[in-house]
Amino acid sequence: MATIFTSEYSGDYGYLYEFKVDATESNVSSSANTSKVTAKAYVRRTNSSANGAYNLNGTAWSITIDGTTTSGTSTWDTRNTDEWQLLGTASKTITHDDDGSKTITIKGSHTGNSASGASKMGNASGSGTFELTEIPRYATASQSLNSKTVDTIKMNWSSDSTIDYIWYSKDNGSTWTGINVSDGKSGTYSITGLSPNTTYKIKTRVRRKDSQLKTDSSALSVTTYDIARISTLSNFEHGDNQVVGITNPASISSLSLVMKIGDTQILSRTVKAGNNTITFSDTELDNIYKKYSSSSSLTATFILSGSGYTNSKTCTITLKGNQKTIRTNVSANWKRGKVWTNVGGTWKKAVIWTNVAGTWKRSI
After folding, report:
1. Are residues 242 and 339 in the same domain?
2. Given CB 3.0 to 4.6 Å as the disulfide criterion, which of 60, 88, 128, 185 pairs with 4?
3. Which domain holds residue 198?
4. Model's pTM, two decimal places?
5. pLDDT in tens, 55-104
6. Residues 246/272, Cβ–Cβ less than 8 Å
């Protein structure tokens, strides 16, 4: 409770009497940014005397709270007492300023006893200010991108006030996910389980600890990285090298490339972003040979793996005379045989040529 003002009365013996208005604040609402102010008007004689003024029929009083006036009449009797006597009560719900602060003016008046002699007190009035409780308001909410991967976004958040809980939205505020945080003014959080190469509109919502009011940040569009992909892959002739182009926007540290023909794995390599030259070993070439059967071409599938994701492309391998094996009939069964020749004391694999309808071709 606060005394807003105390004043004497205006009569010849007004100095023996006091009029005052006290005020209290209650029902402080952070969400509504309001509080209730109650003011009460009192009268008393400063010394106890049988000559104290009184009015048993009632005289007028008024209380004005922040421009709103409440008035009435009240009986009172100051004879033989110096206690404060209540004249009237007024209340008003006050809306605070945007920053939560508020100072108001409270006025009051009372029509006293105008009788002659020692009881002549006259009238009294006065005014004063009342500073209300500063209500905690909304905190600021700021966010920025910390990092991202193919399926995760990590965000920074900050505020000008102590925050005890946050939420994030990845769809511009349509849905929210809550996160418990340590009380503070900044931090990070991660959004997982996202889709690669997808744009999300991220918002951060913070709750101010003291007021429990929530504030949303503006939206930030963030696109996850695409997965590592095979960007270029050409058809090639058997025995040639193959060049595989790789894109890796997320800089995934470990990329594995597998080549299959059907369900059979022919090779496996560790690769990186850019052009990767694949040189086939003799064993790998021989394993490819075994897949031709009566055909002169094969479909090969290259599969790139990294960070739990795969991407694949196919190409055609064509047999045009670069083979290193021949076919030979052993006990009525055609089998592949390798031909070796000694050149300058060094054994090397050789190819066999055969004339088919007047055209020389390497044979298998």
Report:
1. no
2. 128
3. 142-223
4. 0.69
5. 999 999 999 999 999 999 999 999 999 999 999 999 999 999 999 999 99
6. yes
